[in-house]
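Suppose a colleague, Dr. K., hands you the sequence of a protein chain of 221 amino acids and asks what its three-dimensional shape might be. Before reaching for any lab equipment, you can write down a predicted structure in token form. Begin with the sequence itself:
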Amino acid sequence: MTLESPITWKDFFDQQQQQNYYQSLLQFVADEYGLKRCFPPEQQIFAAFDAVAPEEVKVVLLGQDPYHGFGQANGLCFSVNDGVRFPPSLVNIFKELESDLGEPLPISGNLERWANQGVLMLNATLTVEESKAGSHQKRGWETFTDAVIEYISEHCTGVVFLLWGNYAIQKGRKIDRDKHFVLTAGHPSPLSANRGYWFGNKHFSQTNELLKKSGRAAVEW
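The predicted structure, expressed as tokens, is then:
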């Protein structure tokens, strides 16, 4: 079992709702969505938690911001809905997947199929204003996602954390590395990947090897 003690996301959110930062964050998000076009759609902000219960978490994939183009972000980091053109970062993820596991490039960029297998796909900042990368940073989301990581680290065991890019790697300080596995690489964006910090990391095969050693089912990427 992944869990050390029974927990639910409700327990986690109840804890956060008692914190001043969280109330301020929710007010900021409500104001931004009321005045501007922001992503993902409001009902999908917490889609990662709707998709994976704590007891199902095998892998945590940590991104930075949601996609800030219209119709792209769906609440799961790096994921887009069916029929949406793959953003450059997702193209590079799929290229590495193809190189690592010999898998053909997927038809759809919707990564719900990963979430359904226990991959929690979390951005460090869960919302963004259209066409303004990083616009909702330093408003409280970082505190929230730090708390998520700590919650999983404390209550679960044997989770594989995939930290892609310096922003995600810095958040790794919240992980108990005696209980969990941490794999780091450059960000899959073209800027990082083209400098040699992404391709060849083999995180997909490494993750499955670690899961198998822990007696858990590999992810069908």
